[in-house]
């Protein structure tokens, strides 16, 4: 598994996954996203993006989306997307990365800390209000200094061995289905299409 910057050719895939998940990204640009992929198959496992809020006084970096596809959940994919986005924000010179979430425990594992909404700059207070309108009043603001990011070792281990849920884990014996499993006698059954030629 690895995480890379999204490319223009990923745009349709990203837009389809965003729509399927019920998320909205009115300022969509594929180049703002990163994608987690399986090295062997090239299968896309998850994605995320940062959003920069510009004001006359300053710019603020928000970890706006992190989504792992269902078949890849629980395997460290989202954690590595977060890591990549936080690193890119730090490389871009941001001293804080903000996120607005209804699942603060997940972000606490990386070192994010809750922030009182009233203490946020006006632009981020407005963003928190928008997130609460979308996801509910339980949404809170959190922040992290990029150099304080922590990756739990368990997430690294899972990410190295990640496989989609519908595939057997390496070393697991796959059971091959046969015609008999479906009540078909292959000796007596005729087929509409002859595939033996």
UniProtKB/TrEMBL annotation:
Question: Ranges of Acidic residues compositional bias?
Answer: 166-184
Basic and acidic residues: bias regions = 185-197
According to UniProt, the name of this protein is Acetyltransferase, n-acetylglutamate synthase
Superkingdom, according to UniProt? Archaea
Q: Which UniProt keywords apply?
A: Transferase
Q: Does the keyword tRNA processing apply?
A: no
| Stored Pfam families | Acetyltransf_1 (PF00583)
What's the source species' lineage? Archaea, Methanobacteriati, Methanobacteriota, Stenosarchaea group, Halobacteria
Q: Where is this region: Disordered?
A: 161-197
Q: Which organism is it from?
A: Halogeometricum pallidum JCM 14848
Molecular-function annotations in GO: acyltransferase activity, transferring groups other than amino-acyl groups
Q: Which residues form the N-acetyltransferase domain?
A: 1-131
Record's CDD domains? NAT_SF
> Which InterPro entries does the record match to this protein?
Acyl_CoA_acyltransferase, GNAT_dom
């Amino acid at each position: 598994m690895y995480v890379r910057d999204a490319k223009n050719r990923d745009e349709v895939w990203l837009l389809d996954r965003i729509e399927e998940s019920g998320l909205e990204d009115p300022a969509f640009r594929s180049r703002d996203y990163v994608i987690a992929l399986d090295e062997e198959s090239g299968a896309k496992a998850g994605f995320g993006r940062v959003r920069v809020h510009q004001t006359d006084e300053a710019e603020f970096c928000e970890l706006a989306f992190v989504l792992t596809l269902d078949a890849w959940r629980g395997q460290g994919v989202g954690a590595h997307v977060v890591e990549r986005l936080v690193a890119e924000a730090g490389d871009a010179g941001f001293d804080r990365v903000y996120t607005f979430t209804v699942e603060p425990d997940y972000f606490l594992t990386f070192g994010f800390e809750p922030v009182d909404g009233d203490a946020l700059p006006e632009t981020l207070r407005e963003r928190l209000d928008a997130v609460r309108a979308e996801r509910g009043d339980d949404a809170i603001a959190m922040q992290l200094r990029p150099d304080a990011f922590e990756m739990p070792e368990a997430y690294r281990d899972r990410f190295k061995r990640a496989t989609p849920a519908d595939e057997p884990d390496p070393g697991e014996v796959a059971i091959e289905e046969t015609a008999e499993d479906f009540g078909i006698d292959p000796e007596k059954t005729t087929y509409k299409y002859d595939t033996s030629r």
